[in-house]
């Protein structure tokens, strides 16, 4: 059974007002092993689980890490919110680390405005050959994950019109988004090396593909998703990503070639998922034509079902998906609060409660 783990970025917000606060240094000072770490901006922190093998183990660790981050934030006079962008207006403040300051200088407004929170899922692989085989075969299935996790409808005190405006903001980075198929680890690494040597990227850490080989672990890292408002949605995301990796690895081992989808179409699918989330049609990963979001979600489950059966995750993943489709993604829940209250502060306060399962 493949191990998997989740990294989540969280906003630090002021109690009541919900305005992001630049307290990451205080929140992360003297942290324990489960505590949060600093990120690009001082208004956010990152948490990460250990490698897990079961959904129950992962769910427990996700909630533990969120609670640990909340305790650390409260000691510093703030709260944590699993929001992929801030509903309240904010001027981000760059973390005073050399690399982050270089990014702020080199990428100007792109870096200076980049207060976004994503969710990254790592799944173990047996070799880089398998990993590249996986990357090449999961490409069409990443956009539905973005639609399911869309949790960033608001930007600078207004509704962006997108379920995942984070994905639009994140797409300003020069290396962000879907990629062509690579075929071999050599071509993957040659491409990464050429991108860094072009001078447009500071280093290999700025390879911001929607899915990539991890630099530090023997894993495929899927980075397309917003941070999930509900911990259950992060569990669902992780289950489906592991299912996708295992399904793709089986296809690779059997010699089944990747589906030859053009990157231009993948970009359209990602835009569509970012724009409408689960509320309208998505671009179906098989037909590349519009289809109801519900049909696309069930197509994803069907595609990964044999792998989910083998890990014992099919029933849980199906139930979590049904709940998600019934109540909506994080963007829908945020908009519901705003429609009821007319207050962005209420949106953030509700998100703080939901981040911790209340």
Characterise this structure.
Helix content is 48%, strand content 13%. The protein is an alpha+beta fold and 358 residues long. It has one domain: Creatine Kinase, Chain A, domain 2. The strands form 3 sheets. Strands 1, 2, 3, 4, 5, 8 and 9 form a 7-stranded antiparallel β-sheet that branches. A two-stranded antiparallel ribbon has the order 6-7. Strands 10-11 form a two-stranded antiparallel sheet. Helix 5 packs parallel to helix 9 and helix 12 packs across helix 13. The chain is globular and about 55 Å long. The model has no long low-confidence stretch (mean pLDDT 97). This is Putative glutamate--cysteine ligase 2. Keywords: ATP-binding, Ligase, Nucleotide-binding. One of its GO terms (molecular function) is ligase activity.
Helix and strand arrangement:
Blueprint: E1 4-13, H1 24-28, E2 37-38, E3 44-48, H2 55-75, E4 79-81, H3 98-112, E5 118-124, H4 128-138, H5 142-149, E6 154-155, E7 158-159, H6 165-170, H7 185-197, E8 211-213, E9 219-226, H8 231-253, H9 263-276, E10 281-283, E11 290-292, H10 293-311, H11 314-327, H12 330-341, H13 344-355
Antiparallel strand pairs: 1-3, 1-4, 1-5, 2-3, 5-9, 6-7, 8-9, 10-11
Strand tally is 11
The unreliable regions are: none
Count of the separate structural domains: 1
Shape, per Cα inertia axes: globular
Q: Could you say what the CATH architecture is?
A: 2-Layer Sandwich
CATH topology: Creatine Kinase, Chain A, domain 2
Q: In sequence order, what are the helices and strands, one letter per element? A: EHEEHEHEHHEEHHEEHHEEHHHH
For the record, what CATH class applies?
Alpha Beta
Structural class: alpha+beta
Overall residue-averaged pLDDT value: 97
For the largest beta-sheet, the strand count, sense and barrel status come to: 7 strands, antiparallel
Cα radius of gyration in angstroms = 19 Å
| Alpha plus pi helix count | 13
Beta percentage is 5-15%
Distance linking N and C termini: 32 Å
Q: How helix-rich are the residues, as a percent range?
A: 40-55%
